[in-house]
Design a protein that fits this description.
- By secondary structure, the protein is mainly β.
- It folds into 2 domains: 40 residues, no CATH class; 80 residues, OB fold (Dihydrolipoamide Acetyltransferase, E2P), CATH 2.40.50.100.
- It is 9% helix and 35% strand.
- Strand 1 and strand 2 form a beta hairpin.
- It starts with 7 loop residues before the first helix and ends with a strand.
Length: 149
């Protein structure tokens, strides 16, 4: 198998984005190249086709303007692989519910990755139209988490 040259500028850009957003890891995949940059561990590059994870059945959600939530312009997507939590602890109320108005920068949920809880914040102000994950559900990089209208 021929190795693909590593784009060091892309790695630097991803590392800068990691610092700017206070994320613990970022994954990027294109043309059979999968790149993961994470804090406090080494970057991993995998050559060849990326593994496909099985899709778990999701709980029914309110209808959105489009049938595919990933293509919705208000979709907030997971910036990492991890486990989503909708509240700061099991006995606390959720960060947001369907119908809530949110402001830019407000915490929407947490994703635990590598024993670190990462706050996922609203990229813009709006109304929560749908919550697409359940608390304790594993999520993939790029998976839509909720819709802000």
């Amino acid at each position: 198998m021929a190795k693909t040259p590593i784009d060091s500028e892309m790695i630097r850009s991803l590392a800068a984005l990691l610092n700017e957003t206070n994320l613990s890891e970022i994954e990027y995949e294109a043309a059979g190249l999968r790149l993961r940059v994470a804090r406090n561990c080494t970057a991993a590059v995998t050559y060849g086709p990326a593994p496909v994870a099985p899709v778990a059945a999701a709980a029914p959600q309110p209808a959105t303007a489009q049938s595919d939530p990933a293509n919705h312009p208000g979709a907030v997507k997971s910036p990492m692989v991890g486990v989503a939590y909708l509240s700061p602890d099991p006995d606390a109320p959720r960060f947001v519910n369907v119908g809530d108005s949110v402001s830019e920068g407000q915490t929407l949920l947490l994703i635990e990755a590598m024993k670190t809880f990462n706050a996922i914040r609203a990229p813009r102000s709006g109304k929560v139209e749908a919550v697409l994950v359940e608390s304790g559900q594993p999520v993939e990089f790029g998976e839509p988490l909720l819709i802000i209208g």
